[in-house]
Hints:
Largest interface: A-B, 31 and 36 residues
Oligomer: homotrimer
Shape of chain A: globular
Strand content of chain A: 15-25%
Amino acid sequence: MSAKVITIIVTKGSLDWAYPPLILASTAAALGYECRMFFTFYGLQLLKRNLRLQVSPLGNPALGSRLPVFIKTLPGVQAIFTRKARERLRAKGVADIEELRQLCLDADVKMYACQMTAELHEFTKKDFIPGVEYAGAATFFQSAGESDICVFT
Amino acid sequence: MSAKVITIIVTKGSLDWAYPPLILASTAAALGYECRMFFTFYGLQLLKRNLRLQVSPLGNPALGSRLPVFIKTLPGVQAIFTRKARERLRAKGVADIEELRQLCLDADVKMYACQMTAELHEFTKKDFIPGVEYAGAATFFQSAGESDICVFT
Amino acid sequence: MSAKVITIIVTKGSLDWAYPPLILASTAAALGYECRMFFTFYGLQLLKRNLRLQVSPLGNPALGSRLPVFIKTLPGVQAIFTRKARERLRAKGVADIEELRQLCLDADVKMYACQMTAELHEFTKKDFIPGVEYAGAATFFQSAGESDICVFT
């Protein structure tokens, strides 16, 4: 029997939303799934060589829910939330995004950058880590159409 | 013929984004689907005994689109949007999240809390309503891999 | 062999998040997929005759990441981000949402408005472009349950 296949569309580019697709991918690979990730729109940020991912508490009442919204807009507050999130993750032994990303590549997870949105953001292949390939819509649909699981994250 | 299966990943913890997964789940159950929900990241908030869900108009131009963004950041505005949303839902006869959640459990929807992110948020089982079970990645993939529908909300 | 089927749930109503589902749909149709879109919650905004879609940089650190958050809350900044996004898209030859939406309808993509959330938002059929049909949960599940790809965007 051939391996099960998972296709993950990655559209977000913040520190917190980087985790769900990469955790899904690394776990899928560990369980023997063939895993393909398509990074598009803001998700392309996660492929950059130099990550500067941030967490924003704005528009997300589930984060820092005891803090007035006005405080969350003040200078420096996003940086504090980002630093606290990193500290919390490190304290709990969760890998950072660079490590998780490399772990996925090492486990043969395929990472595709959406060519159309890469051009829109004026990214070139040099902006991305090695191992990333460009793909268009046809490649995506070929993968998604034969997948056991396909999620849009 | 065995029942169709739906797996729903729940990652958001605001009042408005709580509805789509719970409406999907309750409807699926009513239509005879076997339904499993995996709550992770901010979605774990929806499993708490005491819900204090809020709606934020920030970062969502589709909500309160006639209001200047600056007004949306002012003290009390998120509370007003939350109260108005609750009133609107009640006036239209839509169940509140506590009711919808219980309705799902009564209809045999399985609710799993992601163990890894529960630990990250320092939630214990006591924080969650009865009926919630812990699950790891293997349980998720077993469910998702055999599902007819799998969505990431 | 019958055509492959894709079902797309559309829940967001901003200019940037309008693109992923519509690009998926138009590409799917071009590749011979039978494509059905279910617009619900904020996604109903994308069906309106008069679109006034905006881009918000708040709550999305991946957008305008060099700008302090406080600046992003100031009057006029959302309008600037929206105008810049439109200019960028036009310069790159990307269709605008009205065109993309019509292109989908012309390619026989089915567009359904979720009846329950349309009532919640007090939309009537007159608010929507021609070609949109109302649908309830049963229609959605019938489509999703037989789809090769089902994504929640």
